[in-house]
Amino acid sequence: MTGQVPPLAGFSVGITAARRAEDLGALLIRKGAEVHYGPAIRIVPLADDTELHAATLRLLAEPVDTVVATTGIGFRGWIEAAEGWGLSQALLGALAGTRVFARGPKATGAVRAAGLAEAYSPESESNAEVLAELLQSGVDGRRIAVQLHGKPLPYFVESLRAAGAEVIEIPVYRWVGPADPRQLDRLLERALGGCVDALLFTSAPAAASTIATAKRTGRLPALIRAFERRVLAGCVGPITAAPLAALGIRTVTPERARIGALARTVATTLSESAPRLRAAQGQLELRGQAALLDGDLRELPPAPMAVLRAMATRPGQVVSRRALAAVLPGHGEEHAVEAAVARLRSGLGSGDLVQTVVKRGYRLCVKESSAEEADRT
User: Fold this and answer.
1) 46, 174, 184, 192, 330 from 43: Cα distances, Å
2) Which residue range is the domain that position 238 belongs to?
């Protein structure tokens, strides 16, 4: 951070989360970011669903040996649904006599909040580790209840059944498409137009839904290029990042899968990767949607910012009007470059920083680069 300027001031961040989006947004706003929301999924609780009720009654009729809690929200939802049916005490009593496997800290917290104790919880929050531990402990002849997390877990369930277990699937909630797809569509347009510097994901279904939406609308290749060039993909953990990683998209993840840690990681990554140049007026730092000139934040419209970013990749060198026209939103004509440069000079409050080279183009008057250009710039 330079002076009193927050680390994310001048950056625009998009959030695709369905749950706790406002909590994550508040953390980013406190760090100075401009936040845009585009939920990629929607959680549909199944508290009144006959399938969940039937699975619960089946478990109560013949208690299970092991329970697998895959998500905190799902496990809590199950207990709350049982309470609505007048079955919570019976369910908790049945679960108290079982081995409880919890997939990570959130599921563990929900298990403990219900007055139960977990027998096993992997630090990786991986279903694969939970499955491996179950199989290693021996499941032949055992009855196992698996709380699903938004969609079926066929490999997990079938692996247990193949090893001799009887499995009861507990469908507590499911993921579906967003209630208003236009919000995600607008967020994608902002990302493709260079108006979003990072897209954040807090669940694998949200990442998969974003990819599916881009693919369905013919924008997946452009989205992948945006991630390659300048949009940061931030994920709360490696499981969330998997759909993006499958497409070769680089992601950043915090050491602990928490939204607070994600906000800090994104702030650090964006701030540290911002190109910094030495100009006569002081240090020039290029943030996503603004420039920091000698400690003063100068917000810039997309076209002037695109021109500044292009010249900053070749500090002190002449960049032709044609090359600058190519980076303008919508790939404007060369005369649009002149207008963008005029707005850039006005926005920076200095006419000397951008020099006109007659019949050749423009150049950024800087002394030397003090930081390597970020890969995404």
Assistant:
1) 10, 6, 15, 27, 36
2) 12-41+179-273
